[in-house]
Amino acid sequence: MLKPNCGGRTTCTAIARSADEARAFLAEAPAIELIAEEYVEPARGFLTRIEVVDGACALAVKCSVADNGLSAYRFGSTYAAYPDVPRTVTDAAERAAAVLSIELGSFDVIEGARGPCLIDANSVSNVSEDCTELLGMDLMRAHAEAVARRWHALGATAPPHPRERTRP
Q1: DSSP E strands, 5-66
Q2: Within this chain, do residues 28 and 51 fall inside the same structural domain, yes or no?
Q3: 83 and 100 belong to one structural domain
Q4: By three-state DSSP, how is residue 92 classified?
Q5: What is the pLDDT of residues 45-69, one digit of tens each?
Q6: Which string of b and e fits 39-57 if b means at least 16 CB within 10 Å?
Q7: Which of 3, 7, 146, 167 has its Cα between 20 and 30 A from that of 127?
Q8: DSSP class of 18
Q9: Are 55 and 97 spatial neighbours (Cβ–Cβ below 8 Å)?
Q10: 32, 60: one domain
Q11: Which stretches of 54-96 are assigned E, i.e. beta strand?
Q12: Same domain, 105 and 28
């Protein structure tokens, strides 16, 4: 697997099954930092997206894998709710969230033959408003409520509106 070291949403990403395929990809790739890692075959035929709120699994989604072996909207991948996600998968994402201090975000996981393999961590959610009806959960609302709980737990109050502030 060859991909950008940071970001890209599968842009400049390829599964190279031979040294020749890797060389061909690298010859055409832009001059950016790339990483090479083992490609883990999804044992169940999809990737798993775990959305965390307050560091705990709030939503699990199945992300289909396209013909090229990658999972992305632009390749035609579809998303569906995953209510029976194995606990080992949510536990792995929650442990990673704790280690990385990610309280609101998402993790992409491949459920491989050797167990869950986290392949991406995002400190912000990737779910958009149009997913609310599809997934049966308003994730943006859950994030807003988590932020509000944290704000109030700290005893914080809203700052005055900029027009209400006085100049020194």
Answers
A1: 34-36, 46-53, 56-64
A2: no
A3: yes
A4: helix
A5: 899 999 999 999 999 999 888 888 8
A6: bbebeeebbbbbbbbebeb
A7: 3
A8: S
A9: yes
A10: no
A11: 56-64, 79-81
A12: no
Reported as type and span, the H/E element at residue 21 is: helix 19-28
Average pLDDT over residues 73-94: 90
Half-sphere exposure of 157 (CA within 13 A, CB side): 2
Inside any domain, residue 158: no
Nearest CA to 126 out of 95, 102, 152 is that of 102
Q: Are residues 10 and 23 in the same domain?
A: yes
Backbone torsion region of residue 45, taken as left when φ is above 0, otherwise alpha when ψ lies between -120 and 50, otherwise beta: left
* Distance between CA atoms of residues 138 and 94, nearest Å: 20
| Cβ atoms 139, 58 nearer than 8 A | yes
128 in the same domain as 83:
yes
* Token pair in block for residue 153: 């737990």
Q: What is the pTM of this model?
A: 0.76
Q: Are residues 69 and 135 in the same domain?
A: yes
d(CA 34, CA 7): 11
Give the domain range for residue 12: 1-39
Contact assessment for residue 46 and residue 64, using Cβ atoms and an 8 Å cutoff: yes
* Residues 10-30, mean pLDDT to the nearest whole number: 90
**Count of domains in the chain?**
2
The whole-number pLDDT of residue 156 equals 66
